[in-house]
Amino acid sequence: MFILKRQDVEISSVQHPKRDQQIPILQYQGQTFRLISVFNASQEEEAKAFWRDLTDNRGKACVLLEEPERYSVWGKVRLEQLGVDPDAQSDDETTPHFIQACLLLLQAMYIDIEDLLGARQVGLFQKEITAVFQQGRFPQTESPAAINQLLTIDPLASLQIPSWQEHHLNTLLRELHRIGKEHFGNATFTERVMDALQDMSAKDRTQFLGWLKQSPYGKEWL
């Protein structure tokens, strides 16, 4: 649809109907859009390619927002759909499992790089993933200790799952794949990393894989 500047739009948030979360909302010419994914300032081409794929190939009504420090892609949604429409928000009961699954992939990548590439590369990975969290404004990643916890504590046993939304998961999946390809030189790491999902219950894993197939970056992992 459109490439917009910050001054063209109004950005606010609405309360999630079932969870203690605020959902980012962009409004433009009477239309409402929900945040799908965030790119950093150096990823202009990736952001435009993602936006074009959604609009041209998948028939989605989307806008690309250009800001000085980042790019973001937003998908059209009706306000009454938020928290219900699968394109806008995942089911309330399954979303925590999706966050846990993405954390398992994050930790598997961290371990894989450490085991196969060594301390220097895993240190670089920590810096890269910290930048992803900061750029994407991920909740509960404000300190090195918080990020270290995400990298090391079993998300299936922890009672403190971060309150991430679907656009955070999309951003994390995209950036994990990009970082993995840069470190390993190809995408063969995905099969090893996806093995981490075997730690989940069969039901939760099936639900996550179903969501992943429909997500913007699922084809990169499956």
Can you offer a commentary on this structure?
There is one protein chain. This protein is an alpha+beta fold. It has two domains: 2-81, 2-Layer Sandwich (Phosphorylase Kinase, domain 1), CATH 3.30.200; 95-221, no CATH class. Helix content is 47%, strand content 18%. It has helices at 44-57, 95-117, 119-135, 144-152, 166-184, 189-194, 202-214, 218-221; strands at residues 2-5, 10-15, 22-28, 31-40, 62-66, 70-76. A six-stranded mixed β-sheet has the order 1-5-6-4-3-2. Strand 3 (22-28) and strand 4 form a beta hairpin. Residues 84-94 have low confidence and may be disordered.
What does this entry show, briefly?
This protein is of the alpha+beta class and 222 residues long. Helix content is 47%, strand content 18%. The protein contains eight helices and six strands.
Number of helices: 8
Low-confidence stretches: 84-94
**Helix/strand structural class:** alpha+beta
Major sheet:
6 strands, mixed
Spatial gap, N to C terminus: 28 Å
Work out the count of structural domains: 2
Radius of gyration: 17 Å
Strand content: 15-25%
Helical coverage, percent range: 40-55%
- The shape is globular
Question: What attributes characterize this protein structure?
Answer:
single chain; alpha+beta; Phosphorylase Kinase, domain 1; six-stranded mixed sheet; 8 helices
